[in-house]
Automatic annotation (TrEMBL):
Main location: membrane
Highest taxon of the lineage: Bacteria
Membrane topology note: Multi-pass membrane protein
Protein name: Sodium/proline symporter
Species name: Stakelama marina
Amino acid sequence: MQIGTIVSLAIYFIAMLGIGFYAWRKSTSDIDGYVLGGRSLGPGVTALSAGAADMSGWLMLGLPGAMFASGLSQAWIGVGLFFGALTNWLVVAPRLRDRTVEVGDALTIPDYFGKRFPRGETLQVVSSAVIVIFFTLYTASGLVAGGKLFDTAFGESYLLGVLLTGGVVIAYTLFGGFLAVSLTDFVQGCIMFVAMIMIPIVALNGAGGWNHAGEVIRSVDPSHMSLLKGVGVLGFISSIAWGLGYFGQPHIIVRFMAIRSRDEVPTSRNIGMGWMFVTLIGSLSVGLAGLAYATENNVVVDDPEKIFIILSDVLFNPWISGFLLAAILAAVMSTISSQLLVSSSSLVEDYYRRFFRRNASQKELVLAGRLSVLLVALVALAIAWNPGASVLNIVSHAWAGFGAAFGPLVILSLTWEKTTRNGALVGMILGAITVGIWIALGWSDWLYEIVPGFAISWLSIWLISLAESGKNAETARPLTAAE
């Protein structure tokens, strides 16, 4: 690894730790501050924190790789994600910010479910278990990605990459809590934003400009420049359906709970959607521009998902290359930290305080939160120790699992007064089970599993709630006039 790259990465790591130290001094005196930053996030931090926690390494590696290999037809996933995120901001964000306060200052999504419905303890425990289990696996996959980045991009040990990535994330998350996670996400979102503009512009210039690059791409495969080539009806639905996952992602929607006020949601939405639009266009452009550059300059690309790494290495000097590669780490680390904190928050709020220490002091709860971060992180590190861990096969479907289990429940609990506790519980469980069965039967190859999972979850909640509505059922607490 060249000295410029080493220095750039060192500066990045030190900056993340510095933010963690700042957050530790500012906002971790009580559990509300540790878990939600005291609900004090400004619109800019909320927006970029949600975006950075969402995109992960998929934005830098997965989507550019898909564009490189298959062309513009892969852009429909980005379209689905964009409109899913926009709907999430419009429907969920303002309502969730208010309702989590109104039901009794709920600090986690399971805590909200438990307080939203009378006798909601079972609902809270089940949803919390789903979060802890899947986010531990999710965290492990992020650590694996960090290790493989060090191995492929820097020629360093895989285990060194896992330990460095995990060590820095664990440190600032454990000590700084939600504020540290959100502020580091903001910085990481800025790094990702700059990287996704720089790479395609320089690559297109190196490929002879946009017009010539288009000719080069068509010479490789004319279908690469077609949005519809090879996209059937079910393929189109599967791609667009990625957007349904947003409503059920705890590490994203928890940001809506932490913004200062409902009035700042529109500003945050505009910032967040602007960031997402630019980074998605940049990600798609990296794949196409990378194909043109590699073809024009005879650059060997053995793995399409490495195109961002390759372009960072061949187009820039080591100092800038280090910054761009830090963008990949930023994408990975922002998601890891968010998942660690959400898992920790569930362990403390939904298990420790509810079942063991109802009268625990604020200092004790913060300590329990830090120990929970460490516990989840250690389990994830153990899983990630093996670079070929099979957990990656499971985690690739976790987006659908969370979306189907929690998405319909989040929306209906915020918008439909007749939603009942039993409907919520059955819908959540059936949504998750449907996704699992769909994957096990191998049907995901022709239709993305979130489609049947989301539909069955929604219908279950709706039908059971309607059946119980006239029988003095355990319905959700009434919605406010603002909703």
